[in-house]
């Protein structure tokens, strides 16, 4: 159940980021009195130019969610490292209390849980980085689009 909630929240963040990214299209004002027909023509030409120049199609980028890592947090060895650190610490504390074996076992369990937490945090950071990279692609495209429209006499905000 906890994983389902976490996965749902991750997907919500991704879709929110994509929606926000899709809404960042620059506002275009016809500063030189261009007609609506001319603005539509210029908009189409600048869309094609920016797409060709950057190699980025914002419609494709926005409709393709970035790859998200879901499921159990594995890889990277965080759990194993946590278990080893916990066992060492637990053995040291257990030796003081009189039973190093029990201390090591308890420390390994606690260390495994801590390692799992680190693995989940690492996975979440990678997911956020994927969203940021996608947003950077869209921003790059819109900078090119804005430059084209400015070159045709429009004010861009």
Topology of this protein?
Blueprint: H1 2-22, E1 28-29, H2 36-54, H3 58-63, H4 78-97, H5 100-151, E2 155-156
Antiparallel strand pairs: 1-2
Describe it.
With 157 residues, this protein is an all-alpha fold. The protein has one domain (2-156). 75% of the residues lie in helices and 3% in strands. It has five helices and two strands. It has helices at 2-22, 36-54, 58-63, 78-97, 100-151; strands spanning 28-29, 155-156. It has a two-stranded antiparallel ribbon. Helix 1 packs parallel to helix 5, helix 2 (36-54) packs across helix 5 and helix 4 runs antiparallel to helix 5 (100-151). It is rod-shaped. Mean pLDDT is 75; it is low at 16-22.
Strand order in the sheet with the most strands: 1-2
Radius of gyration (CA) equals 26 Å
Count of runs of 4 or more consecutive helical residues: 5
Major beta sheet summary: 2 strands, antiparallel
Mean pLDDT: 75
Strand content: under 5%
Based on helices, strands and strand pairing, what is the structural class?
mainly alpha
Strand tally: 2
Q: How far is the N terminus from the C terminus?
A: 44 Å
Q: What sort of overall outline do the alpha carbons produce when their principal axes are compared?
A: rod-shaped
The structural domain count equals: 1
Percentage of residues assigned to helices = over 70%
Low-confidence stretches: 16-22
């Amino acid at each position: 159940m906890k994983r389902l909630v976490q996965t749902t929240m991750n997907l919500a963040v991704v879709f929110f980021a994509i929606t926000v990214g899709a809404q960042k299209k620059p506002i275009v004002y016809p500063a030189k009195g261009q007609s609506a027909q001319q603005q539509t023509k210029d908009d189409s030409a600048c869309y094609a130019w920016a797409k060709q120049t950057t190699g980025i199609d914002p419609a494709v980028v926005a409709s393709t969610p970035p790859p998200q890592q879901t499921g159990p947090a594995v890889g990277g060895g965080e759990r194993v490292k946590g278990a080893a650190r916990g066992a060492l610490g637990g053995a040291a504390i257990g030796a003081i209390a009189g039973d190093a074996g029990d201390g090591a076992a308890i420390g390994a369990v606690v260390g495994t849980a801590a390692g799992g937490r680190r693995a989940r945090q690492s996975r979440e950071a990678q997911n956020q980085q994927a969203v940021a990279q996608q947003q950077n692609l869209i921003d790059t495209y819109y900078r090119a689009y804005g430059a084209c429209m400015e070159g045709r006499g429009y004010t861009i905000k």
